[in-house]
Amino acid sequence: MIENENRAIGFFCPACQQAVIAEKSVFELTATNSTISCPCSKCELKLELQDHLIRMHTPCLFCEESHVFTCPLELFLSEKIIAFSCGISQLDTCYVGKREEVYKAMDRLQETVDVLANQNDEKSIFMNEVVMQEILEEIKVIGERGGISCTCGSQQWNLNLTYSAAEINCTVCNGALKIPATTLSDVDDLCCKMTLTIQEKKNA
Prior knowledge:
Strand order of the largest sheet: 2-1-8-7
Order of helices and strands: EEHEEEEHEEHHEEEEHE
Number of domains: 2
Strand content: 25-35%
Mean pLDDT: 88
Number of strands: 13
Radius of gyration: 18 Å
């Protein structure tokens, strides 16, 4: 069911590094193509309507390239929040959803941006090694009490670590659950969870 309310869209401008959040009505999103420009006028996000799909051309702060994301229109207009990630950095680059959820997600992403800005020149395996260690400890605790499962019914999983996240993978259906691991807020969120649920990967 598509809710008749505005959808918020948020991203960071790679030119001025400021957060850009705009709201579009369902009518605007389903009537024509549109753009969301940063106040600095140096970048913009483009939205294209193609049949029952929304195609977004999204600026990326982290790799400074433009990513193209395609999403079913119904999901784009109804989900509480959708995160779109940079394939190079594995960090979220754009959010779409309810206004309050997008603002919260953008605040969290600002923390990540701040961490990156304060990093020294030394190369590290992880963006924030202390946070990653705490995230892994929390995942271990949840796993030891049998709290990690997949919607396919399996409780078999393994762990894959990236620069900015821990990814829990179902070994049966290959479904994945991404756990951000960049800021203390990520640790606080995970500490509140008794269970973790992987979304089943269904064959096309």
